[in-house]
Amino acid sequence: MVNKDHPLSIGRTIRHAIFFNARNWQSGRPIMDELLQSVNELFAMLTERNVRYTLVGGIAMLQYIQGRNTEDIDIVISITSLRKLPEVTITQKDIFFARGMYRQLQIDFLLTKNPLFAHIQKHHVVELPFAERTIPTATVRGLILLKLYALPSLYRQGDFARVGLYENDIATLMFAYAPPIDDILHELSAFISQPDRDIAQGIVHNLEQRILRFKALRG
Questions:
Q1: Are the beta carbons of 116 and 146 closer than 8 angstroms?
Q2: pTM (2 decimals)?
Q3: What is the reported pLDDT for 136?
Q4: Cα(127)–Cα(134) distance, rounded to whole angstroms?
Q5: Higher confidence at residue 3 or residue 44?
Q6: Residues 6+ apart with CB under 8 A from 8
Q7: How far is CA 51 from its chain centroid?
Q8: What domains sit in the chain, N to C, each tagged with a CATH number?
Q9: What residues does 8 pair with on adjacent strands?
Q10: Residue 32: phi, psi to the nearest 5?
């Protein structure tokens, strides 16, 4: 649940994730205070330049559930808006995604050229308080839509780790918030193929059974 009395710090969350990931130690001491400054500067630039964006990914998830971990920032944004951030060095880019670096901070961009990403930004955003500032953030429904959209592709890629992470995110949101999952699947159907709809439906069914087992065993 969103904690308005003690708002989440994006900078400290990313800093802790980097620090406690031993793989980062191989390249030297993890960057600490500089990272906090980079996060503050990034969101200041987004505000000052009137960039329309939506926070998604692991940081957004942490507004709704505990125990998530992430070393980067995920943002829905248009190509036009992305051009307002020349300080961000783009390292990868395709039709719907881009990855950039602002100093030592990694940012993954979900581009609104993708109809679902544009839909999320238009219909499933709420202003939420963070330690840095109030930030437009995807709703529970928006996050579930994004993760269900991604999962069929992750299965085809054989990305077992991310499949497990995304399914657990969805299950935790379903358990905590009881969203209208049939309505969400219907909404998603406008943006994916029939085979992917079948996969998404199967995933949701399995997660519903998992939640029922948990409730039964919990008593």
A1: yes
A2: 0.91
A3: 97
A4: 6
A5: 44
A6: 59, 62, 63, 130, 131
A7: 18
A8: 10-138 (3.30.460.40), 142-218 (no CATH)
A9: 130
A10: -115, -85
